[in-house]
Each structure stands twice: as C-alpha cells, then as structure tokens.
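In this supplementary section we document a worked example of the pipeline. Step one takes a protein sequence of length 260 as its only input; no multiple sequence alignment statistics are reported here. Step two produces a three-dimensional model, which step three serialises into structure tokens for compact storage. The input and output of this example are shown verbatim.
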Amino acid sequence: MAVPPIIVRNRILAGMAPELFARLRPYLHPIALKRRTILQEHNRTIEHIYFIERGVASLVAPCQRDGPVEVAIIGRFGFVGVAAVLGTMSSPNRCLMEVSGEALRITSNDLQHIMEKVPLVRQHLLTYVHALLIQNTQTSLCNIRHQLEERLCRWLLLASDRLDDNVVPLTHDQLSIILGVRRAGVTTSLATLEEIGAVTKRRGAVEIADRAILEAKSCECYRIIASEYNRVANSSPYQHSINGTTERAYRRSGHPAITA
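The serialised model returned by step three reads:
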C-alpha cells in the first residue's frame, strides 16, 4: 500500500524552488513538539533549525529583574534558529512552544553545509529574516506605546494566522506571561472584547468570534507585521513533500494569504 506524501505546510520551505528544496529534503525530519518544548536556549549553541509546520512558538528576550518578554511569535510562516542562518551559532533569546504542534527539523551543521554549497538557499531563508526583524521592532514599539487591549488583539490575530484557526488554545495566565502583564489585565480586556462580540472565552482557549471587530480594535502594529509576512507567504508557489519526489505549483487560493 502506497504511503501518501507528507505535504510541507511551512511557507518558507514551500517558497523554495524544487531544486533548492531537493537539497534540504534528505536532512529534514518531522518532529512532534509539545507545549513548553524549548527550541532554542539563550546563549547556548543552536543545534537545530525548526521549520514550524503546526503550532505556535514564542521568541522571548530575557530580563532578570522583571521577567522575560515575548519579542516575536513564530509559526508556519517562519522558522526557529535564525542566528545560525546569519552565521552566529547562539542567541541571547530563548524560543519555546506556546501551542503544541509539529516541525521539520534539520541540524545546524547540515544547514550550514548546504548553504555553503548552495548560497541561494541562504538567500531564500534571509527573506524570512527581514520579516522577523520587522516583527521584532514593531512588537517592541507596541509593548511600549500601545494599550493592553490593542496588544492583546494584535497577538490573538497573529496567533490565529499561524494556527490557521479562530481558536487560540491559551489560558489567561499564559497570555499574561506572553504579554508581560498581570492576569487581571488580560481577563478585563478579554471581557471587554467579549462584550462587543470580538471574541468568545472558552475553557483554556479564546475563540475569535468576529475577526473584523478584533482587527478594528487592534493597533496598526498587526497590519504592519501581517503585511510583511503576507509578502513572504505569497511567494510560496510550490507543493513540496518530504517523502516524495513530485513538486508542483498549487493554486494560491489553496493557501489563503494573511488578512492584513
């Protein structure tokens, strides 16, 4: 009985030309990732790069006095281990899974070897690095300048985009840690958003009930970040598989763009 191909969902890999993806395919291995799995430890050698297929990871900056703060959310539009692509094998930031899922993992050594042999692979991966930098800077601005309700809306929208689902499976406690605020503030903001019909609170999750309302309540940071990722995601015209050899272009309607 033929084994059905495992289609690659990560949009960075989906944007690779077939001849470039063929270089990576033998070294990519599927891996299940539970919540709180550490993908990158701060100031430790980066041993693997994770191309997220499903789920959400948080990139957090350390702060000994006040606790860590998230500086980026990573999902199927990106990968973990950017420092290795840039030639630096460690980072002060930690990355861990917030919503369990899967990834395609490759060792840093294997990726370095491939990038040295085929510079176009590195060039392609750098398109995501720019999008990540935009998210880093915009998130930093958002954390300083904007109200909690706006920041919460931004995060829920970004998470929904990466999960491709209106249900974001995180508790109030988890959201408060991610946003670096008190739990009571998150609870109050969610209650306000529920009153106007933007979200519905569920046990251990938040459901986006009306995306248009949530976008209207979000600050401009969501639209700026989403626009940059939309540019990267829309350059993903191939349907690769990791256990097959056929590569074909899919119709773009099959992979909806990020709402901006």
